[in-house]
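Summary of Year 1 activities. Much of the first year was spent building the evaluation harness for sequence design. The harness presents a backbone, in tokenized form, and records the residue chosen at every position. We chose the following record to illustrate the format because it has been used consistently in internal testing since the harness was completed.
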């Protein structure tokens, strides 16, 4: 152990962080002492998880119930051909552990729902939502609000994507302020129907990791209260202002959602259905 509290191997691994004034030794220790729960080990979750692990986030939880399918490999870079049929959390954990032995990876191969979400979320400092269905997104939003956890959220559609950070417990608005109601069942095409440009989730997932690390370090301007929209065909970025909706049923002036609900019933669709979340 060196005088700054890092092993010689860590000094070498994190050298480019340690020389950044915005990170340095104190910042790297923050990263190593931080826990992040990643919802989804798919398109968005893959690059987010890999960059969080590479950066030295000390504990990463991976939550996903699916197995690796051949159609995933075009974009879900945590997994390879040899992982076909394997649980995504197992494949993801193996990849992350091989990248950085400093990182503790916890596998959550479960269906997240209103009965277990608070217990699963509670031990983590930051929640990163890379899921692709509406019930889970509303659940992640509400559970993060009740636990006062920051929620880094990303979504993709064909060649477009969006990223934001919700800290609704601090009065800056939530996912329900942006999308008060889920779309009718069948109104939004599935990934199989609409398609996803393979590199798109790599760009958006990396941004999600960037925002997570910035939040931990307390540096830069956060996307709290902002929605960053990326349109890949034109290589265009737009930043929209998000405001708390006083009429929001969760974080508004007179909340009617005071606990977790049945999100599959609320959205009129199963959480396991792979759907593309629309971009505003």
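For this record, the design step produced the sequence shown next.
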């Amino acid at each position: 152990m060196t005088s700054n509290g890092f092993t010689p191997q860590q000094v070498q691994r994190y050298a480019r962080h340690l020389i950044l004034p915005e990170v340095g030794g104190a910042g790297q220790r923050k990263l190593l002492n931080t826990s992040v729960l990643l919802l989804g080990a798919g398109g968005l979750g893959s690059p987010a998880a890999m960059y969080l692990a590479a950066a030295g986030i000390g504990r990463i939880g991976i939550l996903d119930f699916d197995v690796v399918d051949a159609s995933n490999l075009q974009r879900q870079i945590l997994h390879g051909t040899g992982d076909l049929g394997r649980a995504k959390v197992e494949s993801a954990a193996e990849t992350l552990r091989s990248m950085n032995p400093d990182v503790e990876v916890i596998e959550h191969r479960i269906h997240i729902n209103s009965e277990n979400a608070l217990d699963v979320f509670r031990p983590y400092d930051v929640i990163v939502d890379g899921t692709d269905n509406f019930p889970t997104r509303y659940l992640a939003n509400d559970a993060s609000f009740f636990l006062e956890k920051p929620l880094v959220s990303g979504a993709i559609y064909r060649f477009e994507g969006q990223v934001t950070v919700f800290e609704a417990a601090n009065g800056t608005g939530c996912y329900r302020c942006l999308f008060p109601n889920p779309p009718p069942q069948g109104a939004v095409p599935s990934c199989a129907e609409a398609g996803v440009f393979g590199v798109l989730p790599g760009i958006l997932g990396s941004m999600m990791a960037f925002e997570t690390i910035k939040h931990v370090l307390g540096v830069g301007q956060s996307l709290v209260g902002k929605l960053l929209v990326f349109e890949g065909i034109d290589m265009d970025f737009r930043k929209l202002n998000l405001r708390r909706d006083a009429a929001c049923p969760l974080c508004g002036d007179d909340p009617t959602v005071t606990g977790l609900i049945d999100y599959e019933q609320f959205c009129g669709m199963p959480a396991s259905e792979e759907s593309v979340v629309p971009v505003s």
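Residues 273-280 have pLDDT under 50 and may be disordered. Quantitative recovery figures across the full test set are reported in Table 2.
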